[in-house]
Automatic annotation (TrEMBL):
Protein name (Swiss-Prot/TrEMBL): Glucose-1-phosphate thymidylyltransferase
UniProt source species: Deinococcus enclensis
GO MF term set: glucose-1-phosphate thymidylyltransferase activity
Transmembrane portions of the chain: none
Top-level taxon in the UniProt lineage: Bacteria
Alphabetical list of Pfam families matching this protein: Hexapep_GlmU (PF24894), NTP_transferase (PF00483)
Enzyme Commission no: 2.7.7.24
Amino acid sequence: MKALIPAAGFGSRLRPLTFSRPKPVLPVAGQPIIAYALQHLRSVGIEDIAIVTSDATEAPLRAALADWPDVTYLRQAYMGGLGHAVAGAEEWADGDDLCVMLADNLFEHSPAGLLQAFRDGGAHAALALIEVEDPRAFGVAELDGEGASGRVRSIVEKPEQPETNLAVAGLYCFTPRIFEALRQVPVSARGELELTDAISWLIRDGAVVRGYRQPGWWKDTGRPADLLEANAWMLARQGSVQRGTVEHSLVQGNVVIEAGAQVCRSVIVGPAYIGPDAVIEDARLGPGVSVGRGAQVIGAIVRHSILEAGACVSGLSGTLSDSILGQGAQLSRQPATSYHQCLMPDASTLSIAGD
């Protein structure tokens, strides 16, 4: 089996963060989002992995994944939808089964259970399904049986009155028959080739399509709040590692302090991640804070936030919370209020005189 990770889009709902970089390279708990997909796929023994890119996203993806040299990059000619991204990989797949995992989806557990349901059930396709409170924003599957897996009877995209609460998550397995299905379905009203339409075609054509109730949590990191929630989840899973320097400071809970980082006269409350060469002075961090390589927090209180590489927060009079600062963003000298919330793109500066 091979694996495909579609990652050609920039992610408009995460602007301004994605004006300069695509969504899959944004960091969660110190790693690019897409790195978690790669780790999950490798954990189940899939070594042949391709990432679908575009003209605009390939360079930043290659740069962010420099530690993953054995990945293949496939160029999507235009933004033609998820089905179009999969269809373009037919020659590369070369007759093998295919696991498709979306670059911006985070799963607590690996695809092992889905792969077993796919292989043991003699399926032509298998879909990871997640129980959600409000399924109207998702593709919704009707499943035979109440067990961990069953045959999918139908998929309805964003139904007004869902028959079930089983949302189709961004994780699939296919035999090469998916490429036949993609050739049979027309583009949708929004001008895209929809993978959901191809799966529905398989069901109508009598193919075996299995649904698997994926355990644990799942997050589509489409919006800033989703990114922050995912960051907190992933931080909570890490252990405690201290490779950097800690002086006259208190560190509580699960905290990773990478090599070259300096923590001085500060309080760190986990879960938190402090990247290589970061500087934390006279500050209070956490919980739920991720600080990127070379970032600085000086004379500030920061909680439930992501500070990317080279970002700097200094001299705040209140608490910075629920915020994301892009690479090299600079935030300082806020007014004397108790709470601040910011979404700052790369290389931006916000400096306001205090009261």
